[in-house]
Design brief:
The protein has 156 residues and is an all-alpha fold. It has 3 helices and no strands. It has a domain of 78 residues. Helix 1 packs antiparallel against helix 2, helix 1 packs parallel to helix 3 and helix 2 runs antiparallel to helix 3.
Length: 156
């Protein structure tokens, strides 16, 4: 029996042997989940499967995991822009076209979701390649025209 007056907390060092009630509860022991559930048993909630926690008053929706971005599409667009701005049509435009096509193939297979960026990379790669090719055609055409005209009168 404790010698404490009523209303006071008991002394934890009381020799009577009675322990005061702890305000904290012991956690439940960890139980390993079953490796396989039989059909008809309750399915785990999406929160237990790694989804978002439920919001009070809202219906429970599964967690949305978007597709990862495809780095080929990003590089395709960068190389396409570089091919136009820096006039590197053949050096940057052709890789932009190749990478853009690989990126669009990944979008069709469901591995990425940036089809617009891949298409923009293909278009800018073609524009850069065509512009630089036309430049070189006109440049060499002008040189050939100038050489073919030649200077026939050498007297001054």
């Amino acid at each position: 029996m404790s010698t404490n007056p009523p209303g006071e907390t008991p002394n934890p060092y009381d020799p009577s042997g009675q322990q005061p009630a702890s305000p904290y509860q012991q956690p439940a022991p960890y139980q390993q989940p079953a490796p396989y559930q039989q059909p008809g048993q309750a399915q785990p909630s999406p929160y237990q499967q790694g989804g978002m926690p439920p919001v009070p008053g809202q219906p429970m929706t599964p967690y949305y995991n978007p597709y990862p971005k495809n780095s080929f599409a990003v590089w395709s667009l960068v190389l396409g822009i570089v091919s136009i701005v820096m006039c590197l049509g053949l050096l940057a435009g052709i890789p932009a076209i190749i990478m853009g096509n690989k990126a669009r193939k990944a979008v069709v297979e469901g591995q990425a979701d940036n089809d617009g960026m891949a298409l923009a990379g293909i278009i800018t790669g073609w524009v850069g390649t065509v512009l630089v090719t036309l430049f070189w055609v006109f440049y060499f055409g002008a040189i050939i025209f100038a050489v073919s005209q030649g200077v026939t009168d050498t007297s001054y």
